[in-house]
Amino acid sequence: MRVADVPTPALLVEVAAMERNIRRMAAFFAEGPCRLRPHFKAHKTPEIARRQLAAGACTGLTCATVGEAEVAAGLSPNILIANEPIGRSKCDRIAALAAGAELTVAVDSAAGLAEVAAAARRAGVAIGVLVDLNVGQNRCGVAPGADAVTLARRVAATRGVVLRGLMGYEGHLVAVPDRIEREARARRAMRDLVDTSEMLQAAGLPSEVVSAGGTGTYDISGRIAGITEIQAGSYVLMDSDYGRLDVPFEQAFWVLGTVISRPDPARCVADCGHKSMTKDHGLPTVRDLEGATVVALHDEHATIALPPDAPVRVGDRVHLRPSHTDPTINLHDVFYAIEGDHVVGVWPIAARGYSEHRSSATVR
Ligand SMILES: Cc1ncc(COP(=O)(O)O)c(C=O)c1O
Predict the structure, then answer these.
(1) How many Å from the N-terminal Cα to the C-terminal Cα in the chain?
(2) How many Å lie between the centroid of ligand 1 and the Cα of residue 231?
(3) Which residues lie closer than 8 Å to 149 by C-beta, 6 or more apart?
(4) Which residues contact 191 (CB under 8 A, 6 or more apart)?
(5) What is residue 148's three-state secondary structure?
(6) Ligand 1: residues within 6 Å at CB?
(7) 232 alpha carbon – ligand 1 mean position (Å)
(8) What are phi and psi of 156, to 5 degrees?
(9) Which residues touch 32 (CB under 8 Å, ≥6 apart)?
(10) What is the position in ligand 1's atom list of the atom closest to the CA of 175?
(11) Which of 68, 89, 247, 303 has the fewest C-beta atoms lying within 10 Å of its C-beta?
């Protein structure tokens, strides 16, 4: 199959660019001591995760949901759910996974800890725990310092779970445009994480894992003594939001659309709207069409403003660069893997939509 024959809207992954991203990131972490734990939620695609793991320098995979972990556990024996699992059915599914993999979850409350530990005891397994710190994102996480040590003590004293250390995702900083400001603020956030890890150790508590980082901070947080692993995900495919930064990764995926209308010289319309790509980080950009700008995304339509003499006809293909990787990919079933004009594979996005209930463990 050639790219021209791919039914649209479709997701394309340029294999060579993706492989270069994977190699660049693996080379950075090969120097150690910090390791990479690629975030599976970015692409949810086993074929991509296998290539990330094969490139080396990885501790395992990061996931955001139990459904992702159920897919990822078939790819790596070491899975971190960098998120707080709450609810009996989720915790029981995690315990089932922990029978066959080293499984670690984030915890930021006594109530959450109790649910995870109870599931582990019911299943007769041990589930690893990282105490989640709020390092400034103001999402989940306990405050660094004494609160974190108190929760860590409780984890260490609870049957069914094993305290492995801490995590603190500096997600509020990964896209700060100015490198100097990003670096200074990330260093301060990571100081809180490392200081708290040292407090755990001083209290005789284990803290062998200190997990943080994303695509915009991997080379800052990943070189700070005491941070043991980085959870970057977007680097492998990139998006236009990260494309504004100074990170050394290439755009490797596109939404492919077909022009279905050219109602006037200054405008064309393609068949890919916000059911094909999200716009939470802004509208997509257009490749290879000088002066073309996406001005609106409707459900199934992208409206593109054109210079009046643009050589665009009904039936032409357009490559759009999404503004946000993860939720865009979650809208598709497969990637068309391409080399030049050729489709060299159709890769299932196996964990797409597995925010929770679609897992084989719960759907019959
Ligand atoms: C907890 C956590 N860790 C790591 C990442 C990966 O970040 P990035 O996509 O910037 O690589 C995310 C992304 O949202 C996240 O939520």
Answers:
(1) 35
(2) 6
(3) 196, 199, 200, 203, 205
(4) none
(5) helix
(6) 39, 42, 82, 169, 171, 174, 214-216, 231-235
(7) 6
(8) -60, -25
(9) 57
(10) 10
(11) 89
Domain ranges of the chain: 3-9+248-348, 15-236
Instruction: Render pLDDT for 101-128 as a digit per residue (tens, 0 to 9).
Output: 999 999 999 999 999 999 999 999 999 9
- The DSSP secondary-structure symbol of 318 reads E
- Which residues, in sequence order, are bridge partners of residue 285? 321
User: What CATH code would you report for 15-236?
Assistant: 3.20.20.10
Length of the chain, in residues: 364
Distance between CA 264 and CA 173 in Å, rounded? 42
Distances (CA, A) of 10 to 72, 110, 139, 308, 331: 24, 44, 33, 27, 10
Which CATH superfamily does the domain covering 3-9+248-348 fall into?
A: D-serine dehydratase-like domain (2.40.37.20)
Tell me the pLDDT band of 364, cut-offs 50, 70 and 90: very low
Write phi, then psi, for 347 (nearest 5 degrees): -105, 120
Which of 310-316's residues contact partners 24+ apart within 8 Å by CB, and which partners?
310/268, 312/259, 312/262, 312/268, 313/259, 313/262, 314/259, 314/260, 314/261, 314/262, 315/258, 315/259, 316/258, 316/259
Q: Which pLDDT band holds residue 219 (cuts at 50, 70, 90)?
A: very high
Give the pLDDT confidence of 60-78 residue by residue, as tens digits: 999 999 999 999 999 999 9
